[in-house]
């Protein structure tokens, strides 16, 4: 049954992608490529989430076998219900952590492991792992379908009232209600075009509806106006309450509140600790923080990492 389910589920993904037309072919190949990277191990069991403790244990990773190493012997833990923020310069490997946790790629044998409540994620079914994790990526891909479908995708059994509730919590309801066909409005390539911030709110609504115990947020670096940025920040924080969250952080508010901040440089942990501890340490994080304050900027850490030598 499980063996049958996986390919059918996979075909469903391809079908949905195909529905988006030729313009999305590139994306489909990317998806196929990713799907080929991981397969359920023979006899894989479903993941049993008890507390939601996530651990990266001595993880090393390269995208191609024998290729350029991206992560080097990386270890950190996200305790149940806590948020760990990962910061660092562009290319440091931050998004790679998210891709590995969601199993777009597998950590190779002998190169460490990622566990959820003690279970190696390579040994559980991909479907059960992904059911336990909600992702809000930087660039949300919307299906060429209705707004309701795009939000309800988080939980296909959701009622229209539940979809509207999630949209309200993600502060996108008023926008949707203002469109001519409301929740029946088509979005995507051939429908209503949404801004980056609106798309991210749809992804947040989708995740709220899914209500998974583990969250991955890849905060957008793109220039949202600051009111939008603050609103999205607040939504993300309320969605993360009581959940285990891995946040690829570009904004100081996320970083300040995180249980632990992991400063990643060239795929290695350069520094780690709470915001206060890192400031007291007076290292690279403290310098970035001071630089930001000296410039009076509140736009986020990402730009400052980018400027660092
Ligand atoms: P940013 O802040 O710019 O998003 P990041 O820290 O999230 O950067 P990653 O996206 O994790 O960085 O990428 C880490 C390194 O891995 C980069 O050098 C990137 O070029 C490389 N990389 C990312 N994806 C792939 C891929 N699919 N194949 C090969 N190399 C890749």
TrEMBL record:
<protein>
    <submittedName>
        <fullName>ABC transporter ATP-binding protein/permease</fullName>
    </submittedName>
</protein>
<feature type="transmembrane region" description="Helical">
    <location>
        <begin position="1"/>
        <end position="18"/>
    </location>
</feature>
<feature type="domain" description="ABC transporter">
    <location>
        <begin position="54"/>
        <end position="291"/>
    </location>
</feature>
């Amino acid at each position: 049954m499980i063996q049958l389910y996986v390919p059918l589920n996979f075909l469903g993904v391809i079908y949905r992608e195909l529905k988006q037309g030729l313009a999305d072919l590139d994306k489909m190949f990317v998806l196929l490529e990713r799907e080929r990277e991981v397969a359920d191990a023979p006899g894989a069991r479903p993941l049993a989430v008890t507390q939601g403790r996530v651990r990266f244990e001595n993880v090393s990773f390269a995208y191609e076998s024998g290729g350029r190493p991206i992560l080097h012997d990386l270890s950190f833990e996200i305790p149940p219900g806590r948020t760990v923020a990962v910061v660092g310069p562009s290319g440091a490997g931050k998004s790679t952590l998210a891709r590995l946790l969601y199993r777009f790629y597998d950590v190779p044998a002998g190169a460490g492991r990622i566990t959820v409540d003690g279970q190696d994620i390579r040994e559980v079914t991909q479907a059960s792992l992904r059911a336990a994790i909600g992702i809000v990526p930087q660039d949300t891909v919307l299906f060429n379908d209705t707004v309701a479908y795009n939000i309800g995708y988080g939980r296909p059994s959701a009622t229209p009232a539940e979809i509207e509730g999630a949209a309200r919590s993600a502060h996108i309801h008023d926008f949707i209600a203002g469109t001519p066909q409301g929740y029946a409005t088509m979005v995507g390539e051939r429908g209503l075009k949404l801004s980056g911030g609106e798309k991210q709110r749809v992804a947040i609504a989708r995740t709220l509806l899914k209500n998974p115990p583990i969250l991955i947020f890849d905060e957008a670096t793109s220039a949202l106006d600051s009111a939008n940025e603050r609103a999205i920040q607040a939504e993300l924080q309320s969605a993360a309450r009581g959940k285990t969250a891995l946040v690829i952080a570009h904004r100081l508010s996320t970083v300040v509140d995180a249980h632990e901040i992991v400063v990643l440089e060239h795929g290695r942990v350069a520094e780690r600790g709470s915001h206060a501890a890192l400031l007291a340490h007076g290292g690279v994080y403290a310098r970035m923080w001071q630089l930001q304050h000296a410039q009076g900027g509140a736009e986020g850490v990402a730009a400052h990492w980018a400027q660092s030598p």
